[in-house]
Amino acid sequence: MDRKKLNGLVFMAKVIDRYGIRYNVPRAFLKSKGNLLVILEEEYGDPVKITLDRVSISKVCGHVSESHLPPVPQSLSEVNYNMEHGARPNKVDLHCPPDRNISSILFASFGTPSGDCDNYATGNCHLSDSKAIVERACLGKKKCSVSLWDRDFGIDPCPGIPKSLLIDAQCT
């Protein structure tokens, strides 16, 4: 989806998929009240058939690996900090919506998990304590970060093989 913000106005491209034509207005673009939705006529569109749905997020998921490129530093001070402290940015950041906390870890694998956030499995390399380690770091919190190189993982379950970390969590 292509989003552009210009002078406070939000322009979005439509998404055509198996559900038809959908638009998404991210929560970050909305105020708590006083929002105005302007609908411009589209070719062959029928504004009477427009419906608004509120999506409630109950799961959060993240997947990183040693092969993911780190984000580009935004400033020279960030470059210097990373060099001085050996910062490694590959981490899973989980954030629950407002008024919700991480209530359970549905899946966690440090090693070579396969799949993505919708369909996953442990791989040939998997640290059996992965879920317990992530539970200690995240349960009961609104947000948490777990580094791919977190010292809490302790041992390397398969030396010499690039590692990944996949976490799927429930927010209630």
Automatic annotation (TrEMBL):
Specify the SUEL-type lectin domain's residue ranges. 90-172
Its Gene Ontology molecular function terms?
beta-galactosidase activity; carbohydrate binding
**Quick check: keyword Amino-acid biosynthesis in the entry?**
no
Entry EC no(s): 3.2.1.23
Give the record's keywords alphabetically: Glycosidase, Hydrolase, Signal
Q: Which family does it belong to?
A: Belongs to the glycosyl hydrolase 35 family.
- Name the record gives this protein: beta-galactosidase
Give the organism the record lists.
Corchorus olitorius
